[in-house]
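Milestone M4 deliverable, item 7.
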Amino acid sequence: MDTGARNAPCNMALEKVLLASCAKGAGPNTLHFLEFYPCVLLGYGQSVEDEAEAEFCRKNGIEINRRISGGGCIYMDGGVLGWEIIAKKNTPGLPGNLEDMYRRLCGGLAAALGEFGIHASFRPPNDVEAGGGKISGTGGTELDDSLIFHGSLLAGFDAGMMEKALKNPDKKNKGAQGSIPAWRTVSIKDLLGYAPPMDDLKKSLAGAFAGIFGVEFERGGLTAEEEKRLNEELPLFQSDEWVYERRGSGLL
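Output delivered:
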């Protein structure tokens, strides 16, 4: 499923809808591609005041929203491809052990990047690295017998804008001595000198994950019920309550 570019509240609500649909048996196992307008996405338990430069974001039209999964704050824009797998936990090819699942699914992304001549590999606990930097971060959450495993692939994003939109990014990336970066991001454009078309990246990812699961994907879209649920969920994800109130460690 490819739902194209949507704003942050819509994409975050859509993740909840698709996961709930799978858990109810109303939606199939799905590989979902999604794209974003410039936004900052908090992990479920994070706070705006700790993670985002809210005034800078407001002045520059950068939305702030919150994922249904945990993890760290990230910056997304038109140069980042969002990808996610929504599936039953007992799906063949999906390891039950969390570390093995991260390794296997991140390995799928690494294999897809290999088609573009990029050597990438899994970096525990949940990243994919290439060229000495993080090219994709991943995470997820679960509901009953189903899960969502999602990631962001940095194709040609605006790193300068990310540094301004996130709070103290340099401090967060310093090593123990406060002088050497412990980790940095890198994009496909940084490595190749250009960013491949999103459609080419999606095709490679779909092929890699089809191989992992031993399936053939069929193109699909939202059902009428999912569209209805999306419209019902949107007001929450558009609200200041969702974005600005501190929350616990889990949602579903």
